[in-house]
């Protein structure tokens, strides 16, 4: 375990980030479901349900280890994964049958050799940097984390739309 990190890398997604992500997704309505495999306290799952979409949720803390999943229970995955394993997470999601995905990510995910190599395998459709910071690590005080959101409309695209998202007004 990394010194000073919370068990299972549990850092609840700030409500402003949840709202920004859910408001920009074209969520399936009706019979298609969304999988939230790192649900933590349920913020993403609850927000998605408010759109009328069914959610399959799980979390390592309740015995649902994403990395032990052999087949995705839904084709669309939306979550805030543990950043310490985010590259492994992205690869595994597409290996087990996820077709579309939205992830909260560290803003510099692609800014290294490993990132570039993964970009070549799984380039997202949209990469959005957030124009605000959050006290993501819950240290109190100044916001400490710059975040981004990756949206994949398929496991790999030939192009990526870069965006900068503004903080939702109602936050």
Provide a compact summary of the structure.
With 171 residues, this protein is an alpha/beta fold. The protein has 4 helices and 7 strands, in the order αβαββαβαβββ.
Topology:
Layout: H1 15-24, E1 33-36, H2 43-49, E2 54-57, E3 76-79, H3 86-95, E4 100-106, H4 113-121, E5 126-134, E6 145-152, E7 161-165
Parallel strand pairs: 1-2, 1-3, 3-4, 5-7
Antiparallel strand pairs: 4-6, 5-6
Helix pairs in contact: 1-2
The portion of residues assigned to helices is 10-25%
Task: Give the ordered list of helices and strands.
Answer: HEHEEHEHEEE
> What is the fourth-level CATH superfamily?
Vaccinia Virus protein VP39
Q: What is the overall shape?
A: globular
Number of helices: 4
Domain module tally: 1
How confident overall, as mean pLDDT?
89
Q: Distance N terminus to C terminus?
A: 33 Å
What's the count of strands? 7
Largest sheet: 7 strands, mixed
CATH class assignment: Alpha Beta
**What is the SS-derived class?**
alpha/beta
Low-confidence stretches: none
CATH topology: Rossmann fold
The CATH level-2 architecture is identified as 3-Layer(aba) Sandwich
Largest sheet, order of strands side by side? 2-1-3-4-6-5-7
Give the percentage of residues in beta strands. 15-25%
Rg for CA atoms: 15 Å
């Amino acid at each position: 375990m990394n010194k000073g990190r919370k068990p299972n890398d549990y850092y609840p997604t700030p409500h402003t980030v949840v709202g920004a992500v859910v408001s920009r997704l074209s969520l399936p309505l009706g019979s298609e479901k969304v999988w939230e495999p790192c649900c933590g306290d349920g913020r993403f799952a609850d927000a998605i349900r408010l759109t009328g979409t069914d959610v399959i949720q799980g979390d390592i803390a309740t015995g649902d280890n994403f990395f032990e999943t052999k087949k995705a229970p839904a084709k669309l995955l939306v979550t805030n994964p543990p950043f310490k394993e985010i590259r492994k997470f992205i690869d595994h999601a597409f290996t087990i049958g996820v077709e579309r995905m939205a992830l909260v990510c560290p803003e510099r995910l692609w800014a290294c050799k490993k990132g570039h190599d993964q970009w070549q395998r799984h380039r997202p459709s949209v990469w959005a940097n957030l124009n605000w910071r959050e006290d993501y690590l819950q240290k109190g005080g100044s916001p400490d984390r710059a975040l981004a959101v990756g949206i994949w409309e398929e496991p790999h695209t030939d192009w990526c739309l870069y965006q900068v998202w503004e903080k939702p007004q109602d936050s």
